[in-house]
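Annex B. Sample input.
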Amino acid sequence: MEQINILTERILKFAFGVHTELGPGLLKSSYKECLFYILNKNGICAEKEKALPLVFEEMKMNIGYRVDLLVEKKVIVEIKAVESFTDVHMAQVLTYLKLSGCKIGLLLNFNTAHLRNGIKRLVL
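Annex B, continued. Sample output.
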């Protein structure tokens, strides 16, 4: 678990840098692209728009679930640029954790004056 905590701290460090540089008010895609770029530039393997299949009984269905960023195949990062989080946002990350087998998810809202007010860490 310590390695996951170190990884999430590094992800958040780079997310803070992106937020400081860009500020609030942009589209989600802007923050996602910049965070994806800076993570990979710093040696952290991040996959963007990673497809997650839904498995029901023995049937595997690719029906459009995609995580914003899958980092080191261990942490789901879901990016928002919204006024505030809703229960649906948290449920989305929890669903992605179940589908992916990951244990930790970061829900980041870049549409805040201070990113620290737009972070939810979810554990499955």
